Amino acid sequence: MTSAQVDNGQADGPEAVDAPAGEGYQRGLGARQIQMIAIGGAIGTGLFLGAGKAIDRAGPSLILAYAIAGLVIFFIMRALGELLMYRPVSGSFSEYAREFLGPFFGFVTGWTYWLFWVVTGITEVTAAATYMTYWWDIPQWLSALVFTVILYGANLISVKLFGELEFWFSMVKVTAILGMILICAGVLTVGFSDAGDTATVANLWNDGGFFPQGIGGTLMTLQIVMFAFLAVELVGVTAGESKDPKTVLPKAINTVPWRIAVFYVGALIMILSVVPWSTFKPGVSPFVAAFEQMGLGIGAAIVNFVVLTAALSSCNSGMYSTGRMLRDLAVNGQGPKAFTRLTKNGLPLIGTTFSAALMLVGVWINYQWPGDAFNYVVSFATISGMWAWIMILICQIRFRAKADRGELPQSSFKAPGAPFTSWFALAFIGLVIIMMAIDKDARISLYCAPLWGLILGVSYLVLRSRNPDNKAFAKR
């Protein structure tokens, strides 16, 4: 099938499965943009807003939770990197699941990752609406509606311009966190601001110890911590539109350890040293609260603007991802063929429009439950996002086994310590799911997951029965 056929929406029947998922896209994302998308992708709501609740639950031990979870994330990203160097495609997670586990898992992974970004978009626009109340007493649902419409419009541009916007969004976030770290370092060493007399590294253990809520309290924050890292795998979705994926993607993935060390572990060490952990409250950004405690009112306003930018940036990435994932499913015959169509600029307009329309559900959530909306969507986004990680790890294990037997070529970017590191990461994700089952606030996502699985299972059987000769439903 030619790219012209895809552009005109002519992909249907068995031929659809033979077309590469990246065909028709423009490779407009350069090294500079991919690097900043990779760095900024993990800096969003989970850190800026969700950390407030996590600090309240775990105290300073949250630092350890982020460090350990960060190591697991690195294992996941190196597993993804090994697969990407084997076959860099835009619908990466779905494509690998389809190849190594069968068409059903490709179907489930593609639709679940699409759902993850729809739900994440709701999460981020909810956070953005929450940040707006810092300045103005306006309804959350109204802010959510305006932001959703604006971000949809931003996605009706070329992928090159999308990458440029994300570059500067990420630059703002990175600069702000580094600036906050330096200010906190100044408070600790020089002693300026209202917090200067009480700021000390001893705050990490003075107020109830390093584990003030016990180890159990720390474990209960794992789903919040893992949510903060969701979107690090976004670089896999950009593979089909990267100018030089085999060079750029490994470099982006190898930045994972230091960005976690600086932006998560480093930032929390500085904040919790300057301001005692017991000061922070759920639902309030710890970054904003820290500047308010230091008496730097203008600093709090600036940080609030930055975290607003972070949330909008993440939602913008979500709209980007959903359109690409829907097109991958459609090209492989596992979604409506209308989603295969691209604009002249290589944009999956129909898939993006469909996803943005569903994100408007976030407006209704904010209208119905303005106080609890964030917690509801966070828990469901976590479980759906972790499914992609599980598929990445299992597919990497299967790929490595086949490559070692000589059935497939070895990847040029092998995951160190695999498959043992992949098994460890899977066990850690299992622990997180257990903690979610124990947590009454997060448990709702585990109730929704089987329902979503049932919907996908029935849909798959219906599609297969209607298209018995379609190669999309035959194991490769």
Structure description:
This protein has 476 residues and is mostly helical. 68% of the residues lie in helices and 0% in strands. The chain contains 22 helices and no strands. Helix 9 runs parallel beside helix 15 and helix 20 packs antiparallel against helix 21. It is globular, with a radius of gyration of 22 Å. The two termini are 18 Å apart. The N terminus is likely disordered.
Features of the shown structure:
476 residues; mainly alpha; 22 helices
Content-based structural category: mainly alpha
Mind telling me the C-alpha Rg? 22 Å
What count of helical segments does DSSP give? 22
* Relative helix content: 55-70%
Strand fraction band?
A: under 5%
Coarse morphology: globular
Query: Mean pLDDT score, rounded?
Result: 80
Tell me about the largest β-sheet: none
User: What is the string of SSEs from the N terminus onward?
Assistant: HHHHHHHHHHHHHHHHHHHHHH
Distance between the termini: 18 Å
